[in-house]
Every structure is written in structure tokens, then in C-alpha cells.
Amino acid sequence: MTEDVQKHSVHTLVFRSLKRTHDMFVSDQAKSIALDEESHKLKMAVKLKADYNAVLHMPILKESKDRIPQPPSSMQTQQSYTQPDEPEYMITGTHAYPSGPGVALTKGTKLHRNPSDAGVHSMALALPPSQASQDSSRTAASVSDIHRHAGATERSHPPSSALSMMDGGGTRNNSLIRRAAIMPKPQWHPPWKLFRVISGHLGWVRSIAVEPGNQWFVTGSADRTIKIWDLASGKLKLSLTGHISTVRGVAVSSRSPYLFSCGEDKQVKCWDLEYNKVIRHYHGHLSAVYDLDLHPTIDVLVTCSRDATARVWDIRSKANAHTLTGHTNTVATVRCQAAEPQIITGSHDSTIRLWDLIAGKTRATLTNHKKSVRTVVLHPRQYTFASGSADNIKQWMFPDGKFIQNLSGHNAIINTLAVNSDGVLVSGADNGTIHMWDWRTGYNFQRIHAAVQPGSLDSESGIFACLFDKSESRLITAEADKTIKVYKEDDTATEESHPINWKPDILKRKRF
User: Fold this and answer.
1) Is residue 118 over pLDDT 70?
2) What is the DSSP annotation of 434-457?
3) Residue 400 to residue 383: CA distance in whole angstroms
4) How far apart, in Å, are the Cα atoms of 265 and each of 268, 272, 278?
5) Most buried pick, 49, 131, 320, 382, via CB within 10 A?
6) Can you state the angle between helices 159-167 and 117-126, rounded to 10 degrees?
7) Which residue, among 263, 265, 211, 204, has the nearest Cα to 238 in the 3D structure?
8) pLDDT 10s digits, 70-117
9) Contact 466, 428 (CB under 8 A)
10) Looking at the predicted structure, is the pLDDT value of residue 140 above 60?
């Protein structure tokens, strides 16, 4: 007769297993292992190279050997700047430490000497009471204030005048050291008003392009058609069918009578506008193609897709010249320009990439955005561009993508951006709102929320694309209520009737 197996709880079994494991390996772990010096040196060398390579060759500290002569009448405060045993720091960058950006190095600011402890104490007593700490138990200024003031005074004035600056009172010293941020006043722009509503599409209007002669414009829609409209009258001139899914991008060539389109059916088509027929297909994308753009000077077409790639096509031979890989999610927008970098892409992986067209490789990756980047627009005159995301609109400077400033306030998913030569930046969002910005200062001078057209759901209020015509006097928007809206500047508006409601915000900073 078999005995019953004793049953234990899982808790008991787990702890019994842990105890057995501990007893088995405790003897090995208890022994101290001697440190191999050669291996340790190798490990530290690898760590230095991997983690600190960028700062290994920073300027090194050197001891000053020469005593700087002092006038006999110098006081203890002045002596704190010129003690012979203090370290000197070689300044090799473009800005004198520890001042902010914008101060270039000169002969007088090549060396910066930190004050000694005795100098710090004497300067604390010399500073006016307004600079002192708020703590009632301390009557002198804080050490960090002393270091900051000492450095700034030494760079701005010769030693003989440094003391007189502080003896003159706190007002002048404050104006010198704590210079307030100056906010440039925005340029006045006339407000824009709705001029025309064009209907004809049976689905969301997803893309717009204006032809170089400014006679007509073309739209692509979720109804799978491409329509060509007369710009002056707003009348339909032609409908093109061929795509079997939403048309997400259209572009008109300025070098040949061609129209290019792409869609969610993975197809990229080239239309001959003299015959109104498709003459070329560009095969290669593995998923929906979201945007396309033409290079302004060479016969190259660039498309981007949900397959996380952008592809560069030779227009005539249909060859896939480059496949630009590196993004980890949908590439939502692509723009081309003649200067370096020639291709800019924005992706749902929250990054923007600047590409070298010749090498087909990434030149720079901008990771400041926290949300999907759905649109990028290039300024027509400046060497700058802007990107739109749900977190912010950000402005950047070419060629390396240096961050300029944030344009905050359009709290929605931004689908499209447009900018004209007058510095008017337009952002269109998923909730149907349009914001007008002054490009230079980031001042939001107008907000528009056009009424949804009859026969459309209230939820279908979204701006998918916007574009200025070639004269920059009309703004065309493609919307979710199946209409195309045309806006123009209000000719009757003046600076008195529509003043700039501008309040300088000292707290506004250029932030990432």
C-alpha cells in the first residue's frame, strides 16, 4: 500500500529551494577574489573611452608661475584677483566662462581667474546689502554670487574699476550683472479671413499642391481621386482616378509637365498632364506612402512611408537610388531643398533626420520632440525650418539642426505647417484649429476655427494640409469636412484696429 505524498504550499517549497541553493553556493561566494590589476586598468580604459571620450581632451588646469604686479594702493578686495598661487583656467571655447552665450572671447578675456577664499570673504563684505542672502543669520552674499560677480566684473572692466563699480551701489551693479532678457517686438501682420469654400470631394481632403504658374492647384483625397481646381474661380477642372486607396501626397513638377501622387495603396504614380495619364510607377515601398517631395534642382523624387523608410527615386529611370533607413516608426513627412542637407524627414518615432543625399546616410538626428513629428516646413528665405508635433512647434537652423525656439500654445495634434516670405507661420491641427504665428518671435497673432460644413459630422473637424499659393496672398487648407477652404488677408485691417496684444514674458526662454 503506497503512502500518501505530503503536500506543501508553494511558499514552503520556494523557500526550501532557496535555502538549498544558498547552502550549495555560499562557499564559493564567501571567498574574496584578488583584483587583477591589468584587467582593472583595461576595464577603466574602456570605460573612459566609451563614456567620457567627448571630454577627455578638455583644457587642463595649469598653475600660474608669474606674479602679477599690483599697484601699492590696492585693497584686499582687489588682491583677491591676483594672488600668485591661484589656478588659472585656459578658456578655449567661443564664450568666456562663466558668462552666457553671445560674449565672444577677446584678448582681455582669454584668462579667467577664480577668486580665492580670502577674496571671496572680503568681497562678501564689500557687496551692497541688496546682494546679500535673505537668510537673517548671514550678512554677506553667498559664495556662488561672489564667484559669479567676480568673474563678470573682471571680464567687463579693468581691475582698477572693479571696486568702484561695487562701491557705487547695487543699482548699477545689478544692471551690469543681471541683464534682463530682451524680447523682440513681433512684426504686425494683418489677420486672415475665410475667402472661399470649395466642395467636390467625397472624402477627407488629405493633400494639396499648387502648380508653378499659380493658375491651378491639385488636391488628393480619401475618396481615392485627385482633383485639379482653378485657383482664381475655385471651379473643378479635372478629376484623375487610378489610386485604390487614400491619396496622401501630391506634388507638381516645375521642371516638366508631371504630377506625382502617392497613397495608402503603397503606390507612387507619375502623371503626364498633357495626356492626363499615368506614365510611370515607382515600386518598392512595403506599406502606405504618406508624403512625397520633389528636389528643386535635380530630377529626383523622395517619398516616405509607414515602412519607416524614405526612398529616393530617379524620376526618369524609376530606379530606387537610395533607401534612407534609420527611423524606427512611420516616416510621416519629407522635404527637399537644394542646399545641404538636401532631405529632411519627420517621423512618428519623435525624431527628425537630416540626410546627406549623396551618401544616402543620416547627417544629424534631432531628438527634442517628445511626440510624433507629422510635418516639416522650410522657410522660403531663411536657412531655417520648423517642425510640428503634439508637444510643440520647434524652429531649427540649418545645416546641423541647431534649436532656435519653441512655439507653444497650439495644444493639439499638428498635422501641417506652412510659412510665407513675410514671416507668417500657419499651423493646422486635428481639432480643426488654425494658428497664425510671427516666425521671428513666435507670437501667436491669430487663431481660427472655421465652422464645419453642413452634411459633415462635428467630429470631422481637422486640418490635414495647408499651403500658400505662389503669390503668398492665398492660404489653401484641406480639411476633414471634405472641403477645401481658401483664406486671404483682411485688407481693411490696420495696426490700430487689430493691435498687437504683446506682453513681454521675461520667463520665456529658448528651451528644448
Assistant:
1) no
2) EEEEETTT--EEEEEEPPPPTTS-
3) 11
4) 9, 20, 15
5) 131
6) 40
7) 211
8) 444 444 444 444 444 444 434 343 433 343 444 444 444 444 444 455
9) yes
10) no
Using alpha carbons, list the distances in angstroms from residue 222 to 218, 272, 392.
14, 22, 27
20-64 tens-digit pLDDT: 888 887 766 655 566 788 888 898 888 888 887 777 776 655 444
SS3 252: strand
Total Cβ atoms within 10 A of residue 205 = 29
463 exposed, middle or buried (CB, 10 Å; 0-12, 13-18, 19+)?
A: buried
> Quick count: other Cβ atoms within 10 Å of Cβ 372?
20
R_g over Cα of the chain: 33
* Dist CA 106 CA 115 (whole Å): 21
Nine-digit cell string for 135: 537668510
HSE, CB side, 13 Å, CA atoms: give it for residue 68: 15
Q: How far is CA 268 from the centre of its chain?
A: 29
Rounded to an integer, what distance in angstroms lies between the CA atom of residue 477 and that of residue 464? 8
Instruction: Read off the pLDDT band of 232 (50, 70, 90).
Output: very high
CA–CA gap between residue 151 and residue 170 (Å, rounded): 17
Residue 24 and residue 263: Cα distance in Å, rounded?
64
Return d(Cα 26, Cα 30) in angstroms, integer. Answer: 6
Residue whose C-alpha cell reads 505662389 in the numeric block:
470
Q: Which three cell numbers stand for residue 271?
A: 502623371
C-alpha cell read off for 500:
498687437
Task: HSE, CB side, 13 Å, CA atoms: give it for residue 311.
Answer: 23
- Amino acid (1-letter code) at residue 104: A
Alpha-carbon distance of 410 to 413, in angstroms, equals 8
Burial class (CB in 10 A: 0-12, 13-18, 19+), 187: middle
Angle at 251 between CA 480 and CA 259, to 5 degrees: 115
Q: What does the alpha-carbon distance between residue 428 and residue 448 come to, in Å, rounded to a whole number?
A: 10
With CA atoms as reference, report the closest residue to 452 among 431, 426, 425, 476.
Answer: 431
For 151, counting Cβ atoms within 10 Å of its Cβ (0-12 exposed, 13-18 middle, 19+ buried), the class is: buried
Q: Give the pLDDT band (50/70/90) at residue 500.
A: confident
At position 353, the amino acid (one-letter code) is R
State the DSSP code for 131.
G
Please say whether the beta carbons of 403 and 368 come within 8 A. yes
> Using alpha carbons only, what angle is made at residue 496 by residues 493 and 500, rounded to the nearest 5 degrees?
90
